[in-house]
């Protein structure tokens, strides 16, 4: 691995253990075995490093949604939604311990929100899932009149809630929940 990859991996570890709020760039650089100056050669700030952790070290929710959008016809609606829900559960379970501390202070949340580039906020999974659902509607597997934005929010909200419960209880609900969510969403869409 190169220094950038080492820093992202160390950031994921430190942020999981300490949360975003308490993970300092100095501690991350030390955990990776590099100087803080080198960290800043790769990342402009801790928010950029956090975004790298989300996209490179956690289950690829965006990549799964994009793949399913391009290849929706390759599997059934239920299989696709189960895969999507499973990835969302994994993503939220992995990211919850990291990102929850952003809400520990209004100032930290405000600073983090201001540092985010457009297109990197927590609304992006909704946009990606809604885009995938639109592909399913174009295939005729979801009614054209369905509220795809609401469906995306329902699916991801349920996944987020389950991830919260799993994190709180230190459990892993597994793939059965993903299948149940997919079946329920399909029933609601019809």
From TrEMBL:
Domain HTH tetR-type as annotated: residue spans: 1-61
Coiled coil spans: none
Pfam families documented for this protein: TetR_N
Gene3D superfamilies to which the protein is assigned, alphabetical: Tetracycline Repressor, domain 2
DNA-binding region ranges: 24-43
Cited PROSITE patterns: HTH_TETR_2
Keyword entries, A-Z: DNA-binding, Transcription, Transcription regulation
InterPro entries linked to this entry: Homeodomain-like_sf, HTH-type_TetR-like_transc_reg, HTH_TetR
MF (Gene Ontology): DNA-binding transcription factor activity; transcription cis-regulatory region binding
Superkingdom of origin: Bacteria
Protein name: Helix-turn-helix domain-containing protein
Protein source organism: Amycolatopsis carbonis
